[in-house]
Amino acid sequence: MTDARFHPIGTPGQPWGAAEKAQWRALQVPQRRYADDVVPAVDALRADFDVEQYGTLDYAPDAYPLFAVRSRNWDPALPSVLVTGGVHGYETSGVQGALQFLATRAKDYAGRANVLVASCVSPWGYERVQRWNADAIDPNRSFVANSPAQESAALMALVAPLRAGMVMHIDLHETTDSDETEFRPALAARDGKPFEPGLIPDGFYLVDDSENPQPAFQTAVNAAVEQVTHIAPADDKGEIIGSPVVAPGVIEYPLKKLGLCASITGATYTTTTEVYPDSPRATPQQCNDAQVAAICAAIDYALAHR
Question: Percent of the chain scored above 90 by pLDDT?
Fold first, then answer.
């Protein structure tokens, strides 16, 4: 059944043009500051890690430096792992979980793996608590050749020379109530399509690669997260957000076909985490802790099974 609700911007059945996108962008007001929340936390890591600026987002009059943190004394002989957060800027525990991992656990892998972390891929979206970038483009559908998203293109350029050594990539996300109330209706309006309502799962789940499924890896990650927060159950159709559940708390997408961030390394072990921060059973700290548990379990499994 199609929901009769419609997004306030645009005309039903007609994709947005430049005017509608400009109207949408004008409504996006900063609610927090990347320079206050993220940059100082990255700067605090410089004593123990190498911090590099891998690009700058240019959304005049705003500009945002993009930072990556990597293991000191990067050793090409060691396996490498990638952690990304904030590809969707509004998904707070993706950003904060990546930073917490760097501050508390990343040094545990010194001499065992090269660790590369991009904790806030989309700072414009982070500030505005938005899924899209300033051009009304979803960065997490834009990890493709000649990407239309500055955020995606910059991250791919950072990772490209390191792909051969990558054994694992974990991309940190959230599924929120606002997905259903704001972001999916906006997507339908932008693309001139009807909005089809869905259900937001209560709990943590993972997205595996349907073109390279690694069920034992996903199970190991969920087992660690389950010690911190609850795993999302399937709905009455045996699905989570419209996709069949292939194992408890696991669904699959074709990562590369959809232009998803978790496809960019070509690593054997890849996953996308999905935390549910709006659950009455989870605190913001639990959400961050769940992301850290997932990262560590993913790295541990990849190093043990490479």
Answer: 97
Nearest of 89, 273, 277, 94 to residue 176 by alpha carbon: 277
Distance CA 284, CA 190 (A): 31
Q: What is the DSSP letter of 273?
A: E
| 8 falls within a domain | no
SS3 assignment, position 251: strand
**What does the alpha-carbon distance between residue 131 and residue 83 come to, in Å, rounded to a whole number?**
19
Q: Which domain holds residue 48?
A: 18-304
Domain count, the chain: 1
Full-model pTM? 0.97
Overall average pLDDT of the 172-181 stretch: 97
With respect to residue 182, please indicate whether it lies within any of the assigned structural domains.
yes
Q: Note whether residue 59 is domain-resident.
A: yes
Do the domain assignments include residue 138? yes
Q: How far is CA 38 from CA 220, 261, 290, 301, in A?
A: 30, 20, 19, 29
What is the predicted pLDDT for the residue at 147?
98
Q: Beta strands 239-240 and 114-118: pairing type?
A: unpaired
Q: Is the pLDDT of residue 4 over 50?
A: no
